[in-house]
Design a protein that fits this description.
The chain has helices at residues 30-38, 55-63, 76-85, 100-109, 111-119, 146-150, 176-182, 185-196, 201-214, 220-230, 233-236, 244-255, 257-271, 285-298, 316-321, and strands at residues 45-48, 68-73, 93-97, 135-141, 272-282, 304-306, 329-335. It has a seven-stranded mixed β-sheet, sandwiched between helices. The chain has 360 residues and is an alpha/beta fold. It has two domains: 9-145 and 257-335, Vaccinia Virus protein VP39 (Rossmann fold, 3-Layer(aba) Sandwich); 155-255, Putative methyltransferase TM0872, insert domain (DNA polymerase, domain 1), CATH 1.10.150.170.
């Protein structure tokens, strides 16, 4: 989850707030990302798989004058904002409006043809001498951005009265309102428990089904109200809003976040050149577990090595400046040889393919 960002004192030399209003969003763990990039022998091509407001991409483009960058985001609004912010780097940048697993799979498996399909007429400038995409640095900053939470109008936050949508891409067929309206109680409870790790999932699912019998649940605020009324009184006044975990679960399901992350990270490792690094910032245990398992699997042979065994976390200073960064975990893996090809079976997770049978 790309949490709220504040002013970014780490990058004032590269980013002028007067020119870039989105520089008010701090790229999480930027110092650590810079340090990783500096350890790569030659930064030729970076792929920012979660471009968002463009903070990480801008820092790397500013630091490496010869670097080319492919930025991917499923949200067309994010692509438009970051394209504007990064316009001074347009000769070295390609912004791709796509889910990252789809884009990376095409770049990895389809070679020059895939690059042309994903990158368009400027694809050639991002290919290596053999006509392939080979990346020096690939970054994932998983989850949801501050803009999506506070200004997208798509119901990601329970704090505002917005349509219950939660789709990163308007091309996605399933919205949160559809799930809330259509899923049977048991399936809804399993979704909330599995993706939200919500102990009161069954109570919440039961309350949602009862409420929707009277009228369709259209807004985020109405859903949050139903959830708050369903849980015990003491749970309503805890550290987290009682709707937090349910909203997370719905967002993950709507966008197939865990399945897409797994597929994308495997494709990303396939795209690394020798000495290239794939770095992933995750914000909750479900994401981090996937990253940990894939990296461990790939590091068993001689093709890849872990940059460190345990994930890095933000410094106390970063947490002080930007409190929501406290839950970030950074893992990184380096390609030691080429070609890197994943071992084992690639699992194609769907929205509800891994629901737990356990209840709450």
């Amino acid at each position: 989850m790309r949490e709220a960002r504040g002013a970014d004192p780490l990058s004032t030399k590269e980013i002028n707030p007067e020119h870039h209003p989105f520089s008010l969003h701090v790229p999480v763990m930027l110092d650590e990302i810079r340090a990783l990039a500096s350890s790569v022998q030659q930064m030729r091509l970076s792929i920012d798989c979660t471009l968002g407001a463009g903070g990480h991409a801008e820092a790397l483009l500013a630091a490496y004058p010869e670097l080319r960058c492919i930025g991917i985001d499923a949200d067309p609004e994010a692509c438009a904002r970051s394209s504007s912010r990064l316009s001074s780097y347009s000769d070295r940048l390609a912004v791709v409006n796509s889910y990252y697993d789809d884009a990376l799979a095409a770049l990895s498996a389809e070679g020059e043809e895939g690059a042309a399909r994903i990158l368009g007429e400027n694809a050639a400038r991002f290919l290596d001498t053999k006509g392939k995409i080979r990346a020096s640095f690939i970054l994932f900053d998983l989850g949801i951005s501050t803009y999506q939470l506070t200004a997208s109008g798509r119901g990601f936050s329970f704090a505002s009265d917005e349509p219950l949508d939660m789709r990163f891409s308007p091309q996605a067929s399933l919205s949160a309102a559809d799930i809330v309206a259509q899923y049977p109680e048991q399936r809804l409870a399993d979704l909330i428990y599995t993706y939200g790790e919500e102990r009161y999932s069954r109570r919440i699912a039961r309350a949602i089904v009862a409420a929707r019998r009277k009228e369709r649940i259209h807004s985020a605020a109405r859903l949050a109200e139903i959830i708050a009324e369903a849980v015990p009184v003491e749970y309503r006044h805890g550290r987290l809003h009682p709707a937090t975990r349910t909203f997370q679960a719905l967002r993950i399901a709507v966008n197939d976040e865990l399945g897409r992350a797994e597929r994308a990270i495997r494709s990303a490792i396939d795209l690394l050149e020798r000495d290239g690094i794939c770095a992933v910032i995750s914000f909750h245990s479900l994401e981090d577990r996937i990253v940990k398992h894939i990296f461990a699997e790939m590091a068993r042979g001689e093709q890849c090595s872990l940059e460190w065994k345990k994930p890095k976390e933000p410094t106390e200073e970063e947490i002080r400046r930007n409190p929501p960064s406290r839950s970030a975990k950074l893992r990184a893996i380096r390609a030691r040889s080429k070609p890197v090809r994943h071992s084992g079976k690639r699992r194609d997770d769907e929205n509800d393919a891994r629901f737990s049978e356990a209840g709450a």
